[in-house]
């Protein structure tokens, strides 16, 4: 028996897109992320996943950016075994199980109520796991999370779906609530007219769903968030186009990805950013 997803709002359903992309990657002979938990979750949900029309390029990029974020969280909890991990817009992501942090680490999954309620039904229980059912537009979303331990906040595929005031408030709130830590997330370097045109040109449901939920067009200069909050300091800007895992992409996509990494403008269209506070 599968679980219904009819209760999910359109913005909550965007979590199913990245979930399915990770599941598809796990089915490949040589996966980039290898998230078999994602495939297990997909099997439990009543949803037309094939109807999304998820392209190979999306699978590759989704898996690679998740791996890069996992690596950064893994490094942080190794350096700070008493850390708190906060997964912003966690959806049904199984990053906790992939990273497998020390037992002294607490992991908080923050997302909207309906998707948060679905999480414990499709993923195994874990004593380090804590679900925070809240909107990130609510200033109190961070209240249940400890503030006095080293904290890394990660966000995968989140900020484009939030309004700019909400994004700015998150960037300011991380350093007022949490004592010390890092904020790391994937970024598109600014969503311009080419990206918006692609939404209209491609018929896949995936593009229509994502395009209808865009809330923030992003920024080009990675230091721009420092103008929102002087307590934040950019410590990393890493383009997916230059990662060794790109060699696992299909030949045509591997070539296109490497070529896009040759200029700063195109390389920033798929990047991981990290800020320390």
Structure description:
This protein is of the alpha/beta class and 277 residues long. The protein has a single domain, classed as Rossmann fold. 42% of the residues lie in helices and 16% in strands. The protein has 11 helices and 9 strands. It has helices at 10-27, 36-44, 56-79, 95-99, 113-122, 164-177, 193-201, 205-213, 225-228, 251-260, 264-267, and strands at residues 3-4, 45-46, 84-88, 106-111, 129-133, 151-155, 181-187, 233-239, 271-276. The strands form 2 sheets. The chain has a 7-stranded mixed β-sheet with strand order 5-4-3-6-7-9-8, sandwiched between helices. A two-stranded parallel sheet has the order 1-2. Strand 6 (151-155), helix 6 and strand 7 form a beta-alpha-beta unit. Helix 1 crosses helix 8. It is globular and about 45 Å long. The N and C termini lie far apart (46 Å). The mean pLDDT is 93. InterPro entries: Ppm1/Ppm2/Tcmp (IPR007213), TcmP-like (IPR016874). Keywords: Methyltransferase, Transferase. One of its GO terms (molecular function) is methyltransferase activity. This is Class I SAM-dependent methyltransferase. It holds the Pfam family LCM.
Quick structural overview:
It holds the Pfam family LCM. The chain has 277 residues and is α/β, with parallel strands linked by helices.
Give the neighbour order of strands across the main sheet. 5-4-3-6-7-9-8
H-E order = EHHEHEHEHEEHEHHHEHHE
Judged by helices, strands and strand pairing, the structural class is: alpha/beta
CATH superfamily: Vaccinia Virus protein VP39
CATH class division: Alpha Beta
Describe the largest sheet. 7 strands, mixed
Rg to the nearest angstrom?
18 Å
Q: In total, how many beta strands?
A: 9
Tell me the fraction of residues in β-strands, as a range.
Answer: 15-25%
The overall pLDDT, averaged over residues, is 93
Count of helical stretches? 11
Distance between the termini: 46 Å
Q: What is the number of independent domains?
A: 1
What spatial form do the alpha-carbon principal axes imply? globular
CATH architecture: 3-Layer(aba) Sandwich
Helix % is: 40-55%
Q: Briefly note the CATH topology name.
A: Rossmann fold
Q: Report low-confidence residues grouped into runs of 5 or more.
A: none
